[in-house]
Give the backbone structure.
Amino acid sequence: MIAFDWLQRARAEGFAIGAFNVGNLETFKAIVQAAANKKSPIIIESSPGETHWMGASNIADIGKNFSKEYGIPIIVNLDHSETPEDCMAAIEAGYGLVHFDGSKFSYEENVKIAKQVVEAAHSKGIIVEGEIDRIVGAGSEVHKEMYTVEQIRSGYTDPKKARKFIEETGVDVFAAFFGNIHGTVPPGGQPPLDIALLQKVKEIAGTFLSLHGGSGIDESDIKLAIEMGGINKVNVNTDLRVAFRASLEKTLKDNPDTVALYKIFPPVIKSVQQVVERWIDICGSANKV
Ligand code: G3H
Ligand code: ZN
């Protein structure tokens, strides 16, 4: 159970494993090259949109191929899945971790489906992440709107509710929310992480803990959440998307006549790789392989 073993080691040694979203081969290469450079374990994940775009079995197989080619452990995770069918398909495809995000469902419905996913996943040695909190905002985008602190606080994890959900479902990883939001917000819009709340969740949860919405959070806050609060998995997507697009625009502008994609993409891959390498340093997972 590679995912469980690596998260257990991360917890024991006080580091986190970066979980980076992929939506194409170039981003996949950038992440894997960064992990190989840093001798770091890595979680490669795909949201429902990214999974449907690339295909679950393609993502799982590319992960296996790259793991062999680069000699690094790659855990493939289904990120924010909202249907048991997609979770089962990812389990069949060879994902090592599936995140059932039932936060939009009633608590009872979330528990019911999460239990089904846990049962199916555990029977194949695969672990499951669960989520109960409805955090403000949409997905991994560059948000123009500012959320009020009250809006952000409204999605914070209630430690007792988290404990109840974990006991009733048997999830292995719990998505904790304590100031982290998806995507980036205008300057001044990202509140500091509530580390005291995270510590309360850590004391009661008894599972691995993930931090979603890594992009846009102050580096020192993330490090504190790992060291003090027991975050073992840090999800990042927007930072990679922004780097990819900016570098692609520059590369196309600088090379107006180049049409061979294998000549266009290397600098783009490099830009994304540098972002991932920075995040691996923040997570403290370098030289663990
Ligand atoms: O599940 C994916 C992550 O939570 C992405 O968050 O786009 O804010 O880095 P981010
Ligand atoms: Zn997320």
About this structure: The longest strand covers residues 74-81. The beta strands are 17-21, 42-46, 74-81, 97-101, 127-131, 173-176, 208-211, 231-236. DSSP finds 13 helices and eight strands in the chain.
